[in-house]
Each structure stands twice: as C-alpha cells, then as structure tokens.
Amino acid sequence: MVKSDGCLYLVGTPIGNLEDISLRAIRILKEVDVIACEDTRETLKLLNHLGISKKMISYQKYSENEKKSHLIDLVEAGNKIALVSDAGMPGISDPGEILVREAWVRGVKVEVIPGPSAVISGLVVSGLPSTNFYFHGFLPKGKIKEREEVVNNLKEIRATLIFYITPHSVEKDLQLFLKILGNRNGVIARELTKYYEEVIRGTLEELIEIVKIRTLKGEMVLILEGNQLIPKEMSLEDQYKLYQLMLASGIKSKDVIKTISADYKVSKNKLYEYILEKKEK
Q1: The domain containing residue 107 runs over which residues?
Q2: How far apart are CA 119 and CA 162, in angstroms?
Q3: pLDDT of 49-71, one tens digit each?
Q4: Threshold 0.85, pTM exceeds
Q5: Domain tally for the chain?
Q6: Cβ(173)–Cβ(165) under 8 Å?
Q7: Burial of 222 (0-12, 13-18, 19+ CB in 10 A)
C-alpha cells in the first residue's frame, strides 16, 4: 500500500550524448523536490545543460545504508525524489538497487522513466544474437580463483554474454575469457554515444592483440557470443552401461541415476524407465 503522495522516480540519463535525454525525464527532473545522484558534479553538468536548478543529495555505495532510510523518509513525507546514476539507468551495477528495494519494502510509490542503457546499446550495435542474452556486469576484483569460478559458471550459457569492463582490466579480463570460454567472437563497445565512440569486433584472440598495442580508454561494454557447441546427447543404452559400471563400484542406484542426470544433462525419469525395461527382459 502506498503511504503518501510522494514518489521515487528512477530516471534514465544519457550515457554520453546529452541529447539522449527524454522529454519525460526533463519534466520529472524539473518537478521533483530532490535529485539523488551518484556524483553531484556529474549530475550538475546535465542539469546545467538542461537549465534546471534543483537540490541534490549524493547517494553512493559508500553511504547507501545510512542514506537510503533518509531518502525513503522524505518520500513518505510526500516528497518527490528522482534517482539518477552518473550515466544510464539507475539500479544497474550501482547502489540504486538497494534504494529501490527499500522503497518497495516500505511501501512507497516507485516509477521508472526509461532512458539510455549501455548494456542494450552495446548489444544491439554488436551484431551478436539478441533474442536471448545474459548480463553479468563487472567481474569480481578478488583473487584469480574467484574470477575463474564466475566465468566457469557462465561457460555453458548459450545466450549472448554481456559484461562491463574497465580500461585497466580489459586485457586481463579478455585473457581470462579466452582461457575458460575458448576463442569466441566478441565485441568491445566503448564510449557509446560520445565523440570517440568505437565498436571493435573480432575473436577473443584478435581483441587481445588489439588491446596489447592500443590503450583503450573510457567506459566499455564487452559482448561475447554464447556457447555454440551442440552437446552430444548420450543414448539411453550408453547411459545404462555407465549406470551398470557405477553400480558395480558400490554406489546406490538412486545416487547413480542422479549423478548421470546431472553430469550428462539427461532425464532421470527416462533413464529409470529404461533400467526397469532392462530388468523385465
């Protein structure tokens, strides 16, 4: 239940070219009481361009927990607050998602004003399949084992993969993807909608050679093709032979069936029925 006339607006802002702001976004930014933003300096550039003067509150990952309650308190009191990121849609790989979650928990009104997105822009300009895609965001900054585990978990996904990458990590990230995913086709889309916008296409090996001799700057999105290998389905007879071998080693029947199903992506029920048929003969 909505508790007041206040509202939290999630306002999409340009990812580069300031002309990419919607008419509705401009109206909302003019009407709200407060604008919550990642960096007041970045948001001020946009507001100055639009001729808008408005009170701003900094809302960053370093202060998200202490400020989220205060912002929702303001909405409950009847204030209209616009949440913006430095670029693109708030809530995607930034602390905005925590504020939105708090808003729903406390029952205040939330509206979205769609705008530019580096994820979608990068995907559609890449030329890679867009029917199904998986957006991961940034790889973890932790130890190499943690990073490898994340990429390994994405290895079998057949949908197009999308990541955010930074200039200082681009070569390291590409090497990791090549090591685990193989030499897939990919696209680096950088500085989208800006003066130096560039879309670089190639295999992972080709992209690595490019970043070795060039210093790529600015915001970047990496788009990789999904797993294109067609898995060879194990026949029921082969499943049954493996079942017998594992059963002979002392493993319980139900555990054998469960293991074969998980490891070879086959139906437990079909294998079980096939085993019963063999026993009846």
Answers
A1: 7-116
A2: 7
A3: 999 999 999 887 545 566 778 89
A4: no
A5: 3
A6: yes
A7: buried
